[in-house]
Write a structure and sequence with these properties.
The protein is of the alpha/beta class and 420 residues long. It contains 14 helices and 17 strands. The chain is globular. The N and C termini lie far apart (59 Å). The structure holds ligand C6P.
Length: 420
């Protein structure tokens, strides 16, 4: 007698129904959402938290003594605690709410970089940085006379650690690197890199935009001075991201923006400033968004970041293997499983925008373009790539359907190219 076999229940099986947007059809086909590195979808619990805040608690924070203001303030500060726990910050005051990771990096560039760096000081970045972790430092370098140095790639298209070691010296003041590349999908050894930087007395900023949503990130284990992430990539709303900073590092920084809430005392000619975190949250913050980000953190932690990472590793291993079966494909970055759940690729002479349009016809959303890593694309010898980026609600069945449509696209485009 053969026993009936049943496929094991996956994380996606358990959570899929939590995401109302995924139930729809696009061009008559079930939506396959593979653009999660750009922004993730939101579960019902997060959507409900946003509505509940506006229906029940809406008021400004840290200002009124009335009940609604107290409730809004409590919920806002509770969200800060949740984010602090998520990344294992030593205390909630080490979390500054920002609009997104981009704003968080700019905050450090303006408040610390412009006021601290001197001509001849060196800032180490890598060639795989997102424009958000390049452009602010270009400005800082131009205005202070500091010099930018860039960690190159290994032949396997990962970060070259030997080259990194060779760049460190007693002029290095900052190492600012991405933990997970949004284009190569490589996972950089940021704790090891931070330890090396600290032996030279340099500060360390980690761009954790593509890691915090997908794996356990522990700021004390990394021992970074700052770490940034965006809420909208981790099941939260747009408009809320965060900067983690070590308390002593944040306390030593002057404010970035001036206005209400960030002050202690204001006189006509001068002012004194509030303690952290308020010193860096001038004006009315994105209250509803921060509270809703707290709900997203609750949701992710209910699933477990380690479980999310493990599931995504099985998905990306399948995706990497299946992509390898497509003729003419070039996959960027290191081979699975030692990579994050995204793969950028080129397909012969086919323009990624054309490919993306064809996939969209089949209900499949991917990203095409330079993914805000133009210098990296130049180094890789291409202007743009197509990118499939996964999250824990995606499935092997979706990957197989994606490959099927990709194979059909290859056949379509080879016909187009043959006809000239
Ligand atoms: N990458 C992508 O499709 P913001 O825009 O501030 O939320 O995130 C900026 C950012 C910074 N660092 C990394 C590694 C990122 O991936 C991103 C956002 C998106 O890859 C949009 S370009």
């Amino acid at each position: 007698m053969t026993l009936p076999t049943t496929a094991p229940v996956t994380l996606a099986d358990r959570v899929r129904a939590d995401f109302p947007i995924l139930a729809q059809s696009i061009h008559g086909q079930p939506l396959i959402y593979f653009d999660n590195a750009a922004t993730s979808q939101k579960p019902r619990a997060v959507l409900d938290a946003l509505t509940a805040y506006y229906e029940q608690d809406n008021a400004n924070v840290h200002r009124g003594v009335h009940t609604l203001s107290a409730r809004a303030t409590d919920a806002y500060e509770a969200a800060r605690q949740k984010v602090a726990r998520l990344v294992n910050a030593g205390r909630p005051a080490e979390i500054i709410f920002t609009r997104n990771a981009t704003e968080a990096i700019n905050l450090v560039a303006y408040a610390w970089g412009l006021t601290t760096l001197q001509p001849g000081d060196e800032i180490i970045l890598s060639v795989m940085e997102h424009h958000s972790n390049l452009v602010p430092w270009q400005w800082v370098a131009q205005r202070t006379g500091a010099r930018l140095r860039f960690i190159q790639l290994t032949p396997e298209e990962t970060l070259d650690l030997d080259h990194y070691r060779s760049l460190l010296n007693d002029r290095t003041r900052l190492v600012s690197v991405v933990q997970v590349s949004n284009t190569l999908g490589c996972i950089n050894p940021v704790a090891e890199m931070a330890a090396l930087a600290h032996t030279w007395g340099a500060k360390v900023l980690i761009d954790a935009c593509q890691s915090v949503p997908h794996m356990t990130v522990n700021v004390q284990a990394i021992d970074c001075d700052w770490l940034v992430a965006s809420g909208h990539k981790m099941c939260g709303p747009t408009g809320a991201g965060f900067l983690y900073g070590k308390a002593e590092v944040l306390r030593a920084m002057p404010p970035f923006l001036g206005g209400g809430e960030m002050i202690a005392d204001v006189y006509l000619e001068s002012s004194t400033y509030a303690n952290i975190p308020q010193r860096f949250e001038a004006g009315t913050p994105a209250i509803a968004e921060a509270i809703t980000l707290g709900a997203a953190v609750d949701y992710l932690q209910s699933l477990g970041l380690d479980a999310i990472h493990a599931y995504e590793e099985t998905l990306v291993t399948h995706l990497w293997k299946r992509l390898g079966e497509v003729p003419g494909i070039r996959r960027l970055g290191p081979a699975a499983p030692h990579r994050a759940g995204l793969v950028a690729f080129t397909l012969g002479d086919v323009h990624p925008h054309d490919l993306s349009t064809l996939l969209d016809e089949a209900g499949i959303a991917i990203r095409a373009g330079h993914h805000c890593t133009q210098p990296l694309h130049r180094i890789l010898g291409t202007q743009s790539t197509a990118r499939a980026s996964l999250y824990f609600y995606n499935t092997v069945v979706e990957i197989d359907r994606f490959i099927e449509v990709l194979q059909e696209s290859v056949a379509f485009f080879s016909g187009v190219f043959e006809e000239g």
